[in-house]
Design goal:
4-stranded mixed sheet; 1 helix; flat; 8 strands; 96 residues; two-stranded antiparallel ribbon; 38% strand; mainly beta
């Protein structure tokens, strides 16, 4: 199924994390190997995911992985939301 959608995927949004992007608070590696493979196959610019309820960023190949936290605000940061913008050149970037 992933090969059919190989071109044109800008943002991949999943509940669980792909494997090998981080650990839980106890230091145990977390994530789904299937989602890592899907990310490698689709090569989206951004893969946003949740599930673990704390924020983290990583890369899988050329993909920026943005792990979202529980929604909350602090004076200097917004958690639990990925704000994505396409610039004038057509590139996606994560603003928050």
């Amino acid at each position: 199924m992933a090969r059919r959608y190989h071109r044109g995927v800008d943002v991949l949004l999943t509940h669980d994390w792909p494997s090998d992007v981080g650990t839980n608070k106890a230091g145990i590696p977390v994530g789904d190997p299937y989602l890592r493979q899907l990310t490698l196959q689709l090569r989206p610019e951004i893969h946003a995911c949740g599930h673990m309820h704390y924020d983290q960023q990583a890369r899988i190949g050329s993909t920026q992985v943005v792990c979202l936290a529980k929604p909350r605000n602090t004076p200097d940061r917004l958690y639990g939301v990925a704000v994505v913008e396409r610039d004038r050149r057509g590139n996606l970037r994560v603003l928050a």
